[in-house]
Design goal:
The protein is α+β, with helices and mostly antiparallel strands and 122 residues long. It has one domain. It has 3 helices and 5 strands. The strands form 2 sheets. The chain has a 3-stranded mixed β-sheet, covered by helices on one side. It has a two-stranded antiparallel sheet with strand order 1-2. Strand 4, helix 3 and strand 5 form a beta-alpha-beta unit. The chain starts with a helix and ends with a strand. Pfam families: BON (PF04972). InterPro entries: BON_dom. This is BON domain-containing protein.
Amino acid sequence: MGWLQRLFGMEKPQNAEVNPTPQSIAQTPSTNTAPTATQSIPPERLGLSGEYDQSGLAKRVALAFDQDPQLDDVNTLWVAQTGSTVVLKGKVPSQEILNKMVSVARSVNGATDVDTNQATIG
């Protein structure tokens, strides 16, 4: 079972990307503003297909882990996010694997930090 399936209960969407091109989102028009105003999605809220997703960064990190054959067998670690910080929590087999996960997570657009305080080795 892959990271996306285990953590978010979803299969990889066909057009999913680790670093997708953001889509513009229309602002809710008020009576005094033009309906053509758009706003860009913050990188940490960018979903797998470029859409707005509150957990977008965590999902894209999970997808990046799915795409790395060295990380596909770790099923005792969870990925979350607090703003633009990726949070890794749980247990990993070795420091080498944790270092690889941190490196992969940092390479995902929108990740400004990786918190491993809740991850243990063993």
